Amino acid sequence: MNSMRVDQHPVLGNMGQRQKLKFVFEGKQFTAYKGDTIASALLASGVRTLRRHEDKGTPKGIYCNIGHCFECRVRVNGQNSVRACLTPVENNMIIESNVSRTMTSRGGKV
Amino acid sequence: MSEDQTVICRCEEVTIQEIKETVKQYHCSAREIKLRTRAGMGPCGGRTCRCMIDKIVEQLGGPSVSNEVSLSYRPPVRPVSFGVLGGQ
Questions:
Q1: Over the stretch B39-64, which tens digit does the pLDDT of each residue have?
Q2: Distance between the two ends of chain B, CA-based, in angstroms?
Q3: Mutate which of A54, A68, A69 to test chain B, going by most B C-beta atoms within 10 A?
Q4: What is the domain class of A20-99 according to CATH?
Q5: List of chain B residues whose C-beta atoms are within 8 Å of the C-beta of residue A71
């Protein structure tokens, strides 16, 4: 589903051919274009919930989109607290919601 | 959604209602609000909500913001992980 992507822009023109990249978010395969950030690729694919609040469990997604607020932090290739809005997608990236499974299984806060 | 449910601190999910109630109960400063509710203590380091908390407390009649008691800025200015500071 690429319904939210602007492929033909009245000022910027047609986006044309771009290199496709594959990545995995929460175990599901997604496609991005070269130059996408993790946040933009997921938003274009209809994913708005990037993680859940560690304590209250409420859904969290893009807020400032300029790296200021840390709302969009995700886990990328095992590294915690990576900002999805600033990080370009690379091929075969493994992205997870920012929850450490070992911590939560013990009932602790992350 | 009522106005009181507006989230002020997004990292710690503190609503304006919680801040109002805390100011009412303890007549406290912005710094004390931070310590009591955790507003401004999340991963963004208070960069998103610090000004709002200062203003809300001031408007509710809490102690006004002075350099000595406002929410403090501590180094490092940007949030970094311990791994960045001390290696993996």
A1: 998 888 888 898 899 899 989 987 76
A2: 44
A3: A69
A4: alpha beta
A5: 10-11, 44
Q: What is the pLDDT of residues B2-44, one digit of tens each?
A: 888 999 999 999 999 999 999 999 988 888 899 999 999 888 8
Partner residues linked to B15 by β-bridges:
B7
| Cβ contact, residue pair B48, A73, below 8 Å | no
Whether the CB of B13 is below 8 Å from some CB of chain A: the reply is yes
Of the candidates A10, A28, A5, the one whose C-alpha atom is nearest the C-alpha of residue A94 is A28
Q: How far is CA A100 from CA A29, A88, A96, B35, in A?
A: 21, 22, 10, 26
pTM of the model: 0.80
Predicted ipTM of the assembly: 0.74
Cross-chain Cβ contact A81/B47 below 8 Å: no
Kindly list the domain boundaries of chain A, sorted by start residue: 20-99
Domains with residue ranges and CATH for chain B: 3-66+79-86 (1.10.10.1100)
Residues in chain B within 8 Å Cβ distance of A76? none
Probe site for chain A from B1, B10, B77 (most A CB atoms < 10 A)? B10
pLDDT in tens, A57-97: 899 999 999 999 999 999 999 888 899 999 999 999 999 99
